[in-house]
Amino acid sequence: MSQIAFLGAIEVGLLFAFVALGVYLSFRVLQFPDLTVDGSFPLGAAVCAAMIVAGYNPYVASLMAAIAGAMAGVVTAWLNVRLKILHLLASILTMIALYSVNLRIMGRPNVALLGETTVFTPLESLETPMYITLPIALFVLVVIVKLALDWFLNSEVGLAMRATGVNPRMARAQGIHTSGYIIGGMALSNALVAFAGALFAQSQGAADVTLGVGVIVVGLAAVIGGEAIISTATVFRATIACILGSILYRLAVAGALNADVLGLKAQDLNLITAVLVALAMVLPGVRMPFRAGRGQGRNKGRRRI
Amino acid sequence: MIEAKGLAVTFNPGSPMETPAMRGIDLAIPEGEFVTVIGSNGAGKSTFLNALAGELKPDQGNILIDNQDVTNWPTAKRAGLVARVFQDPLGGSCANLTIEENLALAQARGRNRGLGAAVYESLRDEFRAHIARLNLGLENRLGDRMELLSGGQRQAVSLLMSALQPMKILLLDEHTAALDPKTAAFVLELTEEIVAERGLTTLMVTHSMRQALDVGNRTVMLHEGRVVLDVQGDEKKGMTVEDLLHMFERVRGAELDDDKLLLS
Q1: Pairing of β A206-208 and β B68-69
Q2: Does B84 touch chain A (CB under 8 A)?
Q3: Is residue A305 part of a domain?
Q4: Does B91 touch chain A (CB under 8 A)?
Q5: How far is B50 from chain A (nearest CA, A)?
Q6: The domain containing residue A76 runs over which residues?
Q7: For position A181, which CATH number holds?
Q8: pLDDT of B155 higher than 70
Q9: pLDDT for the residue numbered A285
Q10: What is the pLDDT of residues A194-206, one digit of tens each?
Q11: pLDDT per residue as tens digits for the range B86-100
Q12: Domains of chain A: total
C-alpha cells in the first residue's frame, strides 16, 4: 500500500468516524436499529453541495446539512414513538423517502463541487500537501466531536438517554420522558451522519444521490469492529472504539483491495464489507476472555446488533 | 392521601381474549400508611399497581394524589409523586450502567435534568454514605456495572434508589418474590426500616399471605378485580394465615354459590 493510499484510507476512515459515532448513538445507546443513515448521509451531502453551489458559506452549508440530518432523525423517531411503527421499518420508510428528497434538493442526481470554496479550501494554501493536512484536520475535528459526545452522554440528560435505551420502563419510573429522549437522540445521531455526508461531499468534490448505499453497514462495521478491539466499559472508551473501528475498517478494505494475491477489485467493496462485518461480529466472542471490564455472559442471549 | 375511585380496565375488549382485570377498585390510602395487597393470580394486583404508577391508563375511574387528579398523567410526569421497585431484580435498574449512574438516575427523579455532569465527587460521597448502610460492601464498588450484582443486592440498591427523592407513595411490586428466602428476608427488613424512618406511604403487592400479615398496618385482598377484604389495626394484628385463607375461601365460595344460583 502506498503512502497516499494509506493516508487516503485514514482520511475516509476519519470521515466515517462521524457516521460511526452516530450509529453508536442509535444502535448502542438508544438500542434503536436505525437505517435512516443510508438516507441522511447523502442528505447531508446534498444539502451542503446545493448550498455551496448556490453561493452560501461552506461552514453554514455544513451546519445546515447537520440540521437537515437531525430533522430526518426526528421523522424516523416520530414514526416510531408516535405512530408506533416498528423502529426498523420506520427508519426504512424515512430512508426511502429521503432518496426522493435528495433528488429534489440537488435538482439532479449529482452536484460537482470542483472549484467551489469548501471548508477544506484553507488547507490548500498551506505548504504541506492536502493528503497529509486533510487527515490531520479531520482528526482534530473528530476528537472535538468525540469529547463533546462524551461530555453529553455523562451529563444528566445524556445519562437519561442511556437509561432510555437500556431499560425504558425503569427510565419512565425515574421521570424520564422516553419518547422525547428517543426523538432527541435520533436527531443527534442523524445530525452527525449528515455532517459526515457534508464533509464527504466537500472532500471528494461532489455529492451524489447514491452516496448512501451501505453507509449503515460501514457505520456498524466501525462500531462492532471497534468493540472487538477495545473494551467499551465507559462512554469515553466506546467513542474511541468507534473512531478506531472506522479507521481500521478502511485500512482493512484498502489492504484487501491492494493485496494482489486476493485478486479483489473495487467492485468487490460491498462483499468485503459484509465479510468484515460478519467477522467482527463473531470476533468479540473469541476475544471476550482477554478483555477487561466486561462481565461474563454480558452478551449471552443478547442480540448481536 | 392516595385515592383510587372506581378503577376499571378490560384487556382486549370485544375479542375472545377479553379479560376484565379491574372491575371497580376503590381504595383510599391515608398518608403514612403501609398497605399490603394480596390476591391470587389474575386478581388484578399488578394491573392496579401499574395503574397507580401510570404505566396503564384505566378505562374508568380516577386516581387522586393529594386531591390532584393524576389519572391521565403518563408515568414520567407522575414519577415525582410515585416511586417504584419492580419484581424483576433486572427491572429496577440499568444493567450496563454503573451503580453510581443508576443512583444518579434516581437522584434526578421528579426534577428537571440538566447538562451538568450526572455523577460528581460530592454526589459520589453522598451515594457512598447511603449505600454503606446496606453492609454489602457496595460503597467501594460504585463504579461497578449493575449487572455484576446479585439479585438481592440489586433489589436492595433499587430500594435505596426509590428513597433518594421524596414521594407521595412507594409502590413495591412483589419485590422479594424473585429472591431466595434469606435474601428476601434481608430486603424485606430493609424495606420496613426505610419506610419507618421516612414515614413513607407504601403499597406492597405480595404473593405471600404470611408477608402480607407480618408487614405494614393494613392488608387488602383483591379478587377478580375487586377489593374483597380490607383489614387494619388490631384486626390485622390478631389475624393468622388460616383466618385469611378462610376468608379467601368464603369470598370465592360466595361467588360459586352465586354462579350455582344463576345456573340452576
Answers
A1: unpaired
A2: yes
A3: no
A4: yes
A5: 11
A6: 3-299
A7: 1.10.3470
A8: yes
A9: 55
A10: 999 999 999 999 9
A11: 999 888 999 999 999
A12: 1
